[in-house]
């Protein structure tokens, strides 16, 4: 039987590939990002212009120092749901836009090891806020097209929810991340 984290990892790779293919179909080249010498990434894939580079999602699983949430779990004295750990340690990528029946969203990913460290700090802050508000712990992984609304994973159940920042989740979207990701379609803008 396939372990859920392997299935989730395959789903993430497939979704990233689908996004890049849709972008290439529309624009004839890889996605483009503004150059920033202070923010390197394994996603960079050559120069597009004097001000921009091509980029594409790349596997974070085969790097020499694998990404880990051990330090976050120790700091919070909390075990993070395996799906959220798999989600954020599978790919390096720029965020990209997708749609589903419930609206448009932007999936968040670490761009590099340095960005992964920043992501960990943001997750710690989010969990501490949830504890302060005496709410169940959720971990964000996407932004919606509505201000202050995020998509998060319930840390106990692995369910995917919509929540307004600072409030308890209010709309369940899927029983797990793999199921949720299978509902998404890339959105490519001009």
TrEMBL record:
InterPro entries for the chain: Syd, Syd_sf
Keyword Repeat: no
Subcellular location: Cell inner membrane
Domain of life, per lineage: Bacteria
Pfam families in alphabetical order: Syd (PF07348)
Keywords, comma-separated and alphabetical: Cell inner membrane, Cell membrane, Membrane
Topology with respect to the bilayer: Peripheral membrane protein
GO cellular component, one term: cytoplasmic side of plasma membrane
HAMAP family according to UniProt: Syd
Biological role: Interacts with the SecY protein in vivo. May bind preferentially to an uncomplexed state of SecY, thus functioning either as a chelating agent for excess SecY in the cell or as a regulatory factor that negatively controls the translocase function.
Family to which the UniProt record says this protein belongs: Belongs to the Syd family.
NCBIfam families with a match to the protein in the record: PRK04968.1
Listed name of the protein: Protein Syd
């Amino acid at each position: 039987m396939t372990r859920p984290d392997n299935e989730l990892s395959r789903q993430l790779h497939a979704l990233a590939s689908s996004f890049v293919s849709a972008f290439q179909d529309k624009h004839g080249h890889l996605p483009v990002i503004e150059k920033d010498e202070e923010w390197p990434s394994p996603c960079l894939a050559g120069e597009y212009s004097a001000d921009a580079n091509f980029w594409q999602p790349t596997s974070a699983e085969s790097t020499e120092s694998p990404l880990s949430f051990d330090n976050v779990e120790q700091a919070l004295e909390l075990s993070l749901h395996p799906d959220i750990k798999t989600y954020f340690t599978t790919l390096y990528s720029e965020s990209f836009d997708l749609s589903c029946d419930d609206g448009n969203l932007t999936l968040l990913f670490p761009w590099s090891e340095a960005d992964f460290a920043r992501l960990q700090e943001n997750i710690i802050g989010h969990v501490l806020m949830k504890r302060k508000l005496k709410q169940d712990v959720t971990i964000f992984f996407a932004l919606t097209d509505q201000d202050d609304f995020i998509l998060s994973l319930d840390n106990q159940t692995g369910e995917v929810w919509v929540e307004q920042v600072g409030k308890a989740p209010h709309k369940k979207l899927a029983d797990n991340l793999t199921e949720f990701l299978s509902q998404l379609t890339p959105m490519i803008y001009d």
